[in-house]
Amino acid sequence: MLGICRGRRKFLAASLTVLFVPAITWIYLFAGSFEDGKPVSLSPLEPQPHSPRYTAPSQRERESLEVRVREVEEENRALRQQLSLAQGRGPAHHRGNRSRTYSMEEGTGDSESLRAGIVAGNSSECGQQPAVEKCETIHVAIVCAGYNASRDVVTLVKSVLFHRRNPLHFHLIADAIAKQILATLFQTWMVPAVRIDFYDADELKSEVSWIPNKHYSGIYGLMKLVLTKTLPSNLERVIVLDTDITFATDIAELWAVFHKFKGQQVLGLVENQSDWYLGNLWKNHRPWPALGRGYNTGVILLLLDKLRKMKWEQMWRLTAERELMSMLSTSLADQDIFNAVIKQNPFLVYQLPCFWNVQLSDHTRSEQCYRDVSDLKVIHWNSPKKLRVKNKHVEFFRNLYLTFLEYDGNLLRRELFGCPSEADINSENLQKQLSELDEDDLCYEFRRERFTVHRTHLYFLHYEYEPASDNTDVTLVAQLSMDRLQMLEAICKHWEGPISLALYLSDAEAQQFLRYAQGSEVLMSRHNVGYHIVYKEGQFYPVNLLRNVAMKHISTPYMFLSDIDFLPMYGLYEYLRKSVIQLDLANTKKALIVPAFETLRYRLSFPKSKAELLSMLDMGTLFTFRYHVWTKGHAPTNFAKWRTATTPYRVEWEADFEPYVVVRKDCPEYDRRFVGFGWNKVAHIMELDAQEYEFTVLPNAYMIHMPHAPSFDITKFRSNKQYRICLKTLKEEFQQDMSRHYGFAALKYLTAENNS
Q1: Which spans are transmembrane here (predicted)?
Q2: Residue 538, Ramachandran bin (φ over 0: left; ψ between -120 and 50: alpha; else beta)
Q3: Is 535 part of a structural domain of the chain?
Q4: Is residue 144 part of a domain?
Q5: Are 586 and 557 contacting, i.e. CB atoms less than 8 angstroms apart?
Q6: Which pTM was predicted?
Q7: How far apart are CA 311 and CA 328, in angstroms?
Q8: Do 658 and 609 fall into the same domain?
Q9: Non-local CB neighbours of 664 within 8 Å, separated by 6+ positions
Q10: Residues 659, 685 contacting (CB under 8 angstroms)
Q11: Alpha-carbon torsion 400, 402, 405, 409, what sign?
Q12: Closest of 704, 745, 738 to residue 563, by C-alpha
């Protein structure tokens, strides 16, 4: 009856529209164009006949009128077409359109109502279409473990955020690695109306570890089975997604499908689009039991409250135990067990239209799920080949995926107007700090950068390193942007120890870096290099923020604070570890100085020893670093003494001193007010001195700066007077802060600056 009533209503509305709209339109356009036998302008802005500015209708006005007439005719043609479709469906509309290619597989799904826009609802008296409220929170659960899966989650979340109009609550079942990465990412992403909760996947291992699993997802591929037990008891329903999912529509449309569940339906699933469960892929292929083609668990709608009442936990455990007696292990992780349960209890499942899970693995029937781009809802890269899967339209799907992969995540920080959002302390503090700045200040942009929160993705690539047990391990710390990427391989060849790098990249550049790293044998052979992506935002290069990010995420007791365009001498890693013991760095506040040199040659025969370096200095192949342009920066190192030194020697701090040092990991951070070029290292060394660090030069250590084109920031410093004025202002403010913080001892920095 609901379908008949809706159909009659649409038929009546369309009929009246077709009959009266043309008549009203033509009366308005022509009869309404005359008043007392005289033409009347259709626009109130046009002059009237009694106006001195009045002229006869122009050619442009006549053309405009013709365009409007054609538009009305097009609208009428579309309405007639809609009317004919309604007549063709007749009273059988409620059965769904079986002529659609994907409706043949939908079972309990109603493709026509879904495609008509189930979110919009229907206020007709014939029946209320269930709708998702404007500010209703949509709950999404994702199981994520490891470094690579964390990258996949970001792309999935981007696609959801791009289309969403509702608040989102992500429930992330994550291991320790994924939690660290994603917690930092979402904390720095600061997307409004998005809440994140984490659940410890490692604590859940005991729940499923008894199930042998051959699938590449490992033990984490079984954890969707225990969501009823893991997620909060007051959470009634949730959408569960694999990490290799891409959304092409608003997730609220999928959330609204919950309203279609009837009776004991508690699982919303799409039919499997491969022949796996039919058991005919190869000779002696024996899959787990399934209903027909089985169901794919890449997208699941779970009615948690009903599942708990049905004792889901016991249901799936008993089924798994029974089947494992003959099957011995799962091949497709949780999917095998879900299907075995459904085979015994088919009433549990509500079959979703297959466009809610277009499965792009080899030899599937995914092409039957869509006839046009507009049919696509969710794309599932469920083949181990991922983007290299075979599909007639794989190029289109790949481009759609890459769009979100490289999409600027900062643009997704959109407010949901009209929806109250939970108070975010970090966001409130940021707004308070920014509100205290004077926007008329000529140095406003410099000051603002200090408080800018940059989206940060830690450990972008796989990282695996255990520090040496003797507590002497040293991590090389540096930062870079895309134009210094070529230095990575050379540094890895010179430094065999752990490295922590902060890379300042856009989303698109991050993917270029990923392809570069994955194509490099040198980089892929090193698992002790932590790559931390800090995403671009603002007009300045946040050099000290990058250094702080790299410093914060080291696992060794000591760190070598370097720059990306320096190559350390061969063997420096082992030399520094010995120096740490020799100079008792663990119990003293020392900063060990590695003397810095430079070459102007792009091709350099790197010196293998101090003697060879001294020879190259004498021949003019090498120079002390910045000797020609900024002598003060490294003069206190006392290179003349270093030439003959055989033991470490102490030097005193002087104005503008900025050596490269080895320190304990608990040393102070760099000051974020300094961005771009100028004083970023000088201020840090000054603070080390204020905290009474002893500067000690290592007699047999050295590093060499390799030539490169000038950075954009140094170009701005040299050409922009206001840039230099603001840097001077920031220096003075920093020195004043030092005096307030460290008292009388810090007065020497003001004196030294005035004398320099």
Answers
A1: 12-31
A2: left
A3: yes
A4: no
A5: yes
A6: 0.80
A7: 25
A8: yes
A9: 557, 558, 559, 585, 586
A10: yes
A11: negative
A12: 704
Q: Is residue 274 part of a domain?
A: yes
Distance, CA of 749 to CA of 368 (rounded, Å): 74
Digit-coded pLDDT (tens) for 695-751? 999 999 999 999 877 666 777 776 778 888 888 888 888 888 888 888 877 777 776
Range 626-659 burial, b when 16+ CB lie within 10 A, else e? beeeeeebbbbbbbeebeebeebbebebebbbbb
Most trustworthy range by pLDDT among 67-71, 383-387, 469-473: 469-473
Residues 397 and 448 in one domain: no
Q: Is residue 79 packed enough to be buried (19+ CB in 10 Å), middle (13-18) or exposed (0-12)? A: middle
Domain span at residue 428 reads 424-453
One domain, residues 383 and 270 = yes
Give yes or no: residues 621 and 677 share one domain.
Answer: yes
Q: Which two tokens stand for residue 579?
A: 């120096």
Query: What does the block give as tokens for 158?
Result: 């981007």
Distance, in Å, from the CA atom of 556 to the CA atom of 552, rounded to the nearest integer, reads: 11
Helix axes 543-552, 680-690, angle to 10 degrees: 50
Looking at the structure, do residues 216 and 260 belong to the same domain, yes or no? yes
CATH of the domain at 348: 3.90.550.10
Q: How far apart are CA 155 and CA 510, in angstroms?
A: 12
395 plus 503 within the same structural domain: no
pLDDT tens string 49-95: 444 434 444 555 556 556 555 665 565 555 555 544 444 444 433 33
> Taking CA 144 as the corner, what is the angle to CA 143 and CA 150, rounded to the nearest 5 degrees?
145
Handedness of CA 622, 624, 625, 630 (dihedral sign): negative
Strand-pairing partners, residue 508, are none
Q: How far is CA 189 from CA 150, 246, 408, 657, 751, in A?
A: 15, 20, 11, 36, 42
User: Does residue 327 belong to any structural domain of this protein?
Assistant: yes
Residues 485 and 371 in one domain: no
Q: Mark whether 482 and 460 lie in a shared domain.
A: yes
In the chain, the number of structural domains is: 3
DSSP secondary structure string, 296-363?
EEEEEEEEHHHHHHTTHHHHHHHHHHHHHHHH-SBSSTHHHHHHHHHHH-GGGEEEEPGGGSEE-STT
Q: Per residue, what are the HEC states of 582-650?
A: HCCCCCCCEEEEECEEECCCCCCCCCCCHHHHHHHHHHCCCEECCCCCCHHHCHHHCHHHHHHCCCCEE
What does DSSP say about strands 267-271 and 295-303: parallel, antiparallel, or unpaired? antiparallel
> CA nearest 493: which of 559, 556, 573, 561?
573
Question: E-strand spans in 118-224?
Answer: 138-144, 168-174, 194-200
Give the separation between CA 469 and CA 121, rounded to whole angstroms: 64
H or E element: which one contains 163?
Answer: helix 147-163
